[in-house]
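As agreed, record minuted below.
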Amino acid sequence: MGWEMWLGVAAVAISAVALTVATTVWSQQRRRRRLDPPLAVTEALAEDVGQLIAFVANPSKPAVANLERTVRRVCAEADLPEPLWLETTIEDPGVGQTREALARGADIVVAVGGDGTVRAVAEGMVGTGKPMGLVPLGTGNLLARNLDLPVADPDEALRIVVAGADRVIDVGWARVLEFAQPDGAARDPARTGTSGTGTAGDDAASGTDGVPGDADPGGAGTTGATRRTGDALPEQDTETAHIFLVIAGLGFDAAMVADADATLKARVGWVAYFVAGIRHLHGRRLRAQIQLDDTPPVNAKLRTLLVGNCGKLPGGITLLPDAVLDDGILDVAAIDTRGGVVGWAQLFGDVVMQGFGVRNDLPAKIGRIDHARAKRVRVRVEGGEQAQVDGDLLGRAVELEAWVEPGGLVVRTA
């Protein structure tokens, strides 16, 4: 018998022994798994079984009616417990439902609706350490856009809720320190319990050159706010802090939100805001006094002041190109135009270009955006102007304060 034959016999013998050993080991492991599952597998199953998801849904959104059935099917297919389904009301837009869900043991609470529902759920989730998910069904869907979540695919949004990753982000808070009287006159600060910063002086120079850039925040904290946004409150409540996740604003942007037609919004979505904005293109410029952190206040003339946690808007517009959701600071944009429609056209062009990283810093512009950064911002305007947080109106404010709460919220992302 040649050496090739002996080598073949040895190979067969070794293969037989290996097969026998493998079969024996597999049988023992199978029996061990059946009698005593490995710890890692047991913990994973326990984690899956324990993931109770609560959905806080705005029933006024047309898509919500059919979504509940899809939610229950998705959770069943993922071997998750029966989800909690809680609907918002006019009296409670979601804060109370969120707190109820947490009290019932929810591990994730999902906002199903528009920006108002997202704000309400976020307020209930701040500081809990548990993640908030999003199924965006609104007009703007501002936070979802800034988190790069799907805004037109509820099924994909549900998949991210079930299988996504968690991210810690900052939240902003805004409070009206002084409201305008119905006739436009400012209220007496002594009656509102606020200190007031005085009426802004006349800045003869056009534009907003007085807004300082990249100020040292100086450690402004988040104390002094009473978080009661979910309660039914009178308009003139100067004790209430309102949460915002994207942008708070005073001036043109809030007026645009106030005048947006609800029927048109239902038909064409966020475009309705731009239609409303056309009516305010020739509105008056504001005389404002702006204070960033502990720096001295400066006077400015402007159309609107924006304070943002992030900066993406519908239509691919980026108002605050440097804003980051988790940097512990707010980005401020003072926006001004002169020259009527020509100034607005130049301004719009600058906004579009800065979204691509290109900025026009020429001094002789009739439409301009001045950027700054701070942890706390206070602005006062003569006569009062509309104020808003993430598209929800606060009323006509004479004085507004905004600040950041770093790392206040956990969100579920892709």
